[in-house]
From TrEMBL:
GO terms for cellular component: cytoplasm; nucleoplasm; RNA polymerase III complex. Keywords: DNA-directed RNA polymerase, Nucleus, Transcription. Gene3D superfamilies: Winged helix-like DNA-binding domain superfamily/Winged helix DNA-binding domain (1.10.10.10). This is DNA-directed RNA polymerase III subunit RPC6. DNA-dependent RNA polymerase catalyzes the transcription of DNA into RNA using the four ribonucleoside triphosphates as substrates. Specific peripheric component of RNA polymerase III which synthesizes small RNAs, such as 5S rRNA and tRNAs. It comes from Pichia sorbitophila (strain ATCC MYA-4447 / BCRC 22081 / CBS 7064 / NBRC 10061 / NRRL Y-12695) (Hybrid yeast). It comes from the Eukaryota. It is found in: Nucleus. InterPro entries: RNA_pol_Rpc34 (IPR007832), RNA_pol_Rpc34-like (IPR016049), WH-like_DNA-bd_sf (IPR036388), WH_DNA-bd_sf (IPR036390). Pfam families: RNA_pol_Rpc34. The keyword Nucleus applies.
Amino acid sequence: MDLSENAKLLHSRMVALPSSTLFGQEDLQKFLNTTKSADLLEAAQELINKKLLKLVKQGDELKFQATSMSEASKITSMSEDEAMIYSYIEASGREGIWTKTLKAKTNLHQHIVVRCLKSLEGQRYIKSIKSVKHPTRKIYMLYNLQPSIEVTGGPWFTDSELDTEFIDSLLKVVWRFIASKSYPTVFQAPSPNVNIVQASFPTTHNGFASLSSIVDFIANANITTVDLAINDVRSLCEVLVYDDKIEPIEHMIDSYKVTWSSILEAGYGRDYENPSNEAFVSPKLKSLAAPKHFSIFDSYSVIDSALADDKDLVYFDSWIYE
């Protein structure tokens, strides 16, 4: 594009910063190294005419925002109506804008709005999206943007529909991972070298499943192409807690272990509740698991009272009835 030296200088310095940056009049004067408003207005108007600069209202102030050469070339190729509709769609960001709102803002006839939208969509400048909140509305946004979570519903929605199959499969994956960190041998077939008396980790164990470890496991195992944030995984864990499949660890933050009832419900651990099974219980483990009958009178010793001082002796009857 043919631009004056001042316009080129101003634009080059503005686009060197992030595209979302908004500039005030003082910023532009610094870029041009001038205090003359006339010089600034001349350069700014030139850029506005070439679609390389646009005015943005921020509160009660008017700010300037630079547009890239490619974006400006795109806009100049549009008709006046298309450019106006495109500007409103661009301003809507990742939320998108409803066609009815577009019609009201542009004050254009319905068939003109529809024609412009079809043209812009055909050139892949904009795209139609579905909203979870408003599934019947036709909403448009810029082609290169991704809809916000408020629009899509987050990772749990596919085409604006709650993906229950995806959620259920993730719940199973998360539960099994937490179970593997709660009971070391629960998914193994019982054998003589497996201690059925100690199927769970001791209370001093610190390797229970944490939220961050679950997130890492899902990401590293390539279970899903959907990026799950830690709050998404927390939501899954909350569902499992509500279903009594897992429980939070009291002395640890954001860590969980599975409930034994959920292990049994999933079809595991039943053999561990049958310690009399000769097929896998070794004699040593059998003796440990056997009921114990203990009486203090089976283990006692006596001392010769002649060898002890009376004041050191406590007689059983007087002690027990004290």
